[in-house]
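Deliverable D5.2: sample structural annotation.
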Amino acid sequence: MKRDWVPHAYQREIVDHQLDLARGAVWAGMGLGKTVATLTAIDALQLTGEGPALVLAPLRVAQSTWPEEARKWSHLSGLDVVPIAGTPAERLAALRTDAAIHTINYEQIPWLVEQGAWKWSTVIADESTRLKSFRLRQGGKRAQALARVAHAHVKRWVNLTGTPAPNGLKDLWGQTWFLDRGVRLGSTYTAFTDRWFYTDPSGYGIQPLPTARQQIEDRLRDVCLTIDKGLDVDKPIVNQLYVDLPRKARQAYVDMERTYFAELGAAGAIEAANAAAKSGKLLQLANGAVYTDDDGSWTEVHDAKLQALDSIIEEAAGAPVLVAYHFRSDLARLQRAFPQAQVLDKDPATIRRWNAGKIPVLLAHPASAGHGLNLQDGGNTLVFFSLNWSLEEHDQIIERIGPTRQKQAGHNRPVYLHYILASGTLDDTVLDRLQSKRDIQTVLMEAMRRRV
């Protein structure tokens, strides 16, 4: 069922900014609705005769997020979004479709450019920090390929990101070149660094001059819209990020839901003794790994949630992220997928390092993040990789970095809550219970009625 869009004031700013400027950037954090605002701007432009648009994004975002966002809103009913993904043959078939918007992941940019016959007058670079490595004669191959068409064939260009300079001001030149071909920050990366940076005395890397930030911001102000003021810092900004279960995982989920039994191929089968056990198995399948015996052995069935978390961490671009997990299998998979992550343990040094900004990803079980822990200095982003039924644990881990603690610590910034949910699973029911604070029995009965 489509929904009517009632934009926030800052979302109207995003739309107007993209309509008014042929080439510009929007710097707004995940969950603020910059995707629907951008789609609205594209829709308006195409009504005036603008050509088709191409969205560059990480794979999962290109394949799912943009098409799903267009389908969600009633005012975008006439906007067709086609992902260019899959095998070469499938990509070529998608490429030939006459769509208002095509989406493609950054890894496929060289392939796309090699096809020739460029047809997109508008390019949206979602998570544009992936273009930061561009240099005129060196740098990443993807950005190099994109540069060949960026100014010769593209009329309108929009960079979207939540953290434009994750590793410092030096990240800005590559992205900005695609907007103005070096007019604002220098015609080459060397010219940029010579003007605003000096070599670190230690011999490692470069550091910005004292006047660099102000001068660079002044030069970018006319093309970059920053959404950070006017946000309500008294309540969290909530983002529900849905992933689709792969076919085999979906079949195992459906079988467990209906019969308390599911086949896992070479890994054997799983069985639930009662309704409570079935609930646990369903949540495990939604997360991506399910326990196969009473000794703690588990089998991985998909990595959809891991891919979604990777996108969130990528967009955070160096800003610390707190990740809540539930099962030990979740923790093992998270540690394997994100070797830079650390686990919230009983060592006080771990909390000190987090609050000092030295831990990029902190993995925490909500039960271990109860009363008294102060994590607000370390970051303002919490991701629920998995959920459990405990309302107290859910609320307690949010409070560790919540709006009240942020204010008490002197941080005038919003708190971002990201829930990674598997579509059509018990995840929705658990979240309903947590957000509505109703009893478990009530939400389960309502969920079963909806299924029937």
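Annotation notes: The longest strand covers residues 237-243. The mean pLDDT is 88.
The annotation will be released with the project's public dataset once the embargo ends.
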